[in-house]
Amino acid sequence: MKNIFSFFNKQESLPNVSDKNLISICNGEMIEPQRIADKIFAGEVMGKTVGFIPSSNEIFSPCDGTLEVMFPTGHAFAIRMKDGTGILVHVGINTVDLNGKGFKILAKQGSKVKAGQKLLDVDFDFIKKEGYDPTIMLIITEPVENVEYNFSEFGPKEKYEIIL
């Protein structure tokens, strides 16, 4: 007989993603950088950028790697992939000003993360109520030489869906 508690402890298995791919960081719509309402992100000043208009409150790691930076406010984090590529995820525009309100951090800076691992819970209703744009930016801040980074078509995306 199975332990009745095993049902409650069942964890969703993470996708098996190649070290060369990125997956969607949330459920929502992946948009062109020009549609992002911040000129730094829209202009791809920090690197090749895509935006996400989230439809859920969960933010996932786009890849396997090391969580090199997790801002204490939860509004941004950076992951270093095995090949050296640096990825920055910035949740919302100017949300650093919320000083962590609306963000629940689920992973520690310095830890190894897997593609699809939940890293943040974000209260997007609160963020919007406070007057902030909830758009999430994924930026390839440190590309590796001789690697092409071509994102998939823009439009609706589900967690774990390959976007690069």
Largest sheet: 8 strands, antiparallel
Structural class: mainly beta
Roughly how many Å is the radius of gyration? 16 Å
How far apart lie the N and C ends? 44 Å
Helix content: under 10%
How would the global form be characterised? globular
Biggest sheet strand line-up:
8-4-5-6-10-2-1-11
Mean pLDDT: 93
**Treating each run of at least 4 consecutive H or I residues as one helix, how many helices?**
3
Give the low-pLDDT segments. Answer: 4-8
How would you describe the overall organization of this protein?
The protein is mainly beta and 164 residues long. The protein is built from three helices and eleven strands; from the N terminus they run αβαββββββββαββ. The strands form two sheets. An eight-stranded antiparallel sheet has the order 8-4-5-6-10-2-1-11, with no helix packed on it. Strands 3-9-7 form a three-stranded antiparallel sheet, with no helix packed on it.
Which terms summarize this structure?
3 helices; 9% helix; 164 residues; 11 strands; three-stranded antiparallel β-sheet; mainly beta
Map the helices and strands:
Elements: H1 6-9, E1 28-31, H2 39-42, E2 48-54, E3 58-60, E4 65-70, E5 76-80, E6 86-91, E7 103-105, E8 112-113, E9 118-122, H3 124-129, E10 136-142, E11 155-157
Antiparallel strand pairs: 1-2, 1-11, 2-10, 3-9, 4-5, 4-8, 5-6, 6-10, 7-9
